[in-house]
C-alpha cells in the first residue's frame, strides 16, 4: 500500500478511469504538458495522447459547453476548472444546459461529465483562488456535487464520478492536495453518495466535508482531552445528501454542528439544520449550530485565517452547543 | 463610422427576387426539375407549419410561438444541404430545418404548448433539442464536432460527418458564440456556423450587434465567412453544401451569414410596430423567398396549375394534421417532473414524488 498525496491519488484515479474506458477524455486549461497548475493530470497527456488529454482555449464556458457536445457524441469528458473562482463564466452552461439536459430530453441525452474544481482557501492565494461555491451547484437540480477530503476517497470518488451518467461537480480541497494517506487501489470503495462517520463519538456530531473534515477531526481530538466525545461525519456527497447517516448520528448525540468554509447564509449548513429540525425536533438537546466562513467576499490572504473556520472556532461553537 | 452593411457587401445569390437564375463562380449547382419543385414544396409547407402554429397560439392552444416567416429559404436551403449523417443544433426558430430533418411538426409544438421541455430524441434524427438561451448550442455543436474528429469520422467526401450550428444576429454578440468560433478554429472542427441575420433581435437591430457585416467576423477567428442571400433557397443550399463538404473533408469551419428578414414578430408576444417601420417590411416582401421560387418555376416552365394545386392541398392536409395533433396533445402527468432529473431518482426526489402522490391522493379521498 502506498502513501499518496491527494493530488497523486486523483492522478492515479484518472489514469484508472482512462484505462478502463477509452471514451474518457480530460480537458481544461494547462492540463497537458504542464499537468495542471496543481499537477493533478501530470503525465497523463504523455501516456494517453493529445486526443484524450487536451489543453483548451482559455474560456470556461467553452470548456463546459464543448464538453456537453462531446458527451452527446458519446464521450465522457472530465473538465478541469483551474480554480473555484473561475467557474462562473461556465455557470450558465452548467446550470442552464448541463444540469437540465437529462430532464428536458426525457433521459434520451446523457451527460456523463465531471467538472473538477479545486476549492477552498488556506493557501495564501490572491483573490478568486480560495472560494467555496458548492452551494450554487447543490441548489441546482440535475447536478450531483461531491467533495473529497482525503487521498483514499479522492482516488475512488473520481473514478465513481466518471462512471456515473449524471453530471458531477467534483470539489477538491486544494489545501489538502499535498497531504498523504494510505491508498490501497484494490480496496472496496464506499458508494459515492454515502456519507461516512470518520470518528465515533457520543456527545455531539460535527458535520463537515472537503477541507473541514481534517479541521473537525483535529477539533475532536482536542475535545477528547477535555473529556468530550465528538462524532465526525464526512458528508462526501453534498448533493444528494446522505441524510440517513446524518440523522442516525444526531439521533444518538442530540447535538450537531455543521462546519464549512463557505459563507453561512443559505449554505449547506442551513439545509442540514432545516432538515434536522424537521426530523429530530423533539430529540435535539440544542439547536443546530454552524461554523462557517463569514458572509463577506473572501478576504485578502493575510487575514484568511480569521475567515476560515479553525480548530478554536469549532471548539468554541461546540462549547455553545454543549452549554444548552 | 463605417456602416455595418455597406451597399457593396458581396452576397451570394443564385436566384434574384424576380426569379431570375444567376450563376456564381464558386457556388454553381445543377439541380433537376424535381429538386427545384421539391424546394418550392418545402418552402410552402414550412410556411404553412408556421402559419398554423401562429394561429394555434392566437386561439390559445400554444402559450407562445416563434415564427420563422420570411426565413423559409435560409432554413430549407441549409436543411436540405445536410446529409443523413450530419448533426444540426437549432435555436428555437428552426422549424424549417426540423422539417428537413423529418421531425414531425407536431413534436415542435410541445415546447410552445407547455407540455414538454423537449419533444423528440435528438439522436434519432440528429437534430438537437431547441435551445432557448441565446448562443449556448453553438458550443454544444462545436463539442460534438470535436467528437467527430476524435472518432476519425472526418475526411471522406461521402461518409465524413459534419455539424451545423444555427444562431442569429443577436447571438453573434454572445460570449458562447465567440468561444465556439475560437474552439472550432483551433481544433479545425467539422462545423458550419449558420447565422440567420434576420435584421432584428427582438427590437434590437443588427447595427447594435456589429459594426461590420457578420460574415466578416470569421476572418478574425481564422476561418472563411460568406454572406448568402438568405431568401434565396438555391444559394443557401449551394453555399451550405459547400461549407458542409469542406467540414466533412477536414477543411474546418465556415461561417455562413444568411442575410434574411424576420417578416413577423420575434414571437407571438412581440409587437414590431413599436420599433420598426412598415415600409421596411414592405421592402422585404418584394424579396419573399416563396414568391421568387414560384416565379422561377413559371419561367422554367417546369410546373403547371396542377402542381401548385397539389402543393396547396398538401399544405392544407399538413395544417389540418398539425391542428389535430396539437389539440390532442395532452398535458403530461405532473409526476414526470421527478423521474428524469437524474439517471436514477435521488432519495430526495423519491421522497418528494411520494409526498406529491400522497398529497393528491388525499384529494381523491376527500381528505382536503
Explain the overall architecture.
- The complex is a heterodimer of chains A (324) and B (368).
- Chain A is of the alpha/beta class and 324 residues long.
- Chain A is built from twelve helices and 14 strands.
- In chain A, strands 3-2-4-5-7-6-12 form a seven-stranded mixed sheet, sandwiched between helices. In chain A, strands 9-11-10-13-14 form a five-stranded mixed sheet, sandwiched between helices. Chain A has a two-stranded antiparallel ribbon with strand order 1-8.
- The model of chain B has no long low-confidence stretch (mean pLDDT 96).
- Chain B starts with 32 loop residues before the first helix and ends with a helix.
- In chain B, helix 2 runs parallel beside helix 9 and helix 4 crosses helix 12.
- In chain B, the strands form two sheets. Chain B has a five-stranded parallel sheet with strand order 1-2-3-7-6, sandwiched between helices. Chain B has a two-stranded antiparallel sheet with strand order 4-5.
- Chain B is built from 14 helices and seven strands.
- In chain B, helix 7 links the parallel strand 2 and strand 3.
- Classes of the chains: A alpha/beta (324), B alpha/beta (368).
- At the A-B interface, helix 3, helix 4 and helix 5 of A face helix 6 and helix 7 of B.
The major pleated sheet of chain A works out as: 7 strands, mixed
Q: Which structural class is indicated by helix and strand composition of chain A?
A: alpha/beta
Low-pLDDT stretches of chain A are none
Give me the Rg of chain A, rounded.
19 Å
The CATH superfamily of the largest domain in chain A turns out to be Thiamin diphosphate (ThDP)-binding fold, Pyr/PP domains
Helical proportion of chain B, percent range: 40-55%
* Extended strand count of chain A: 14
Which sheet architecture does the biggest sheet of chain B show?
5 strands, parallel
Structural class of chain B: alpha/beta
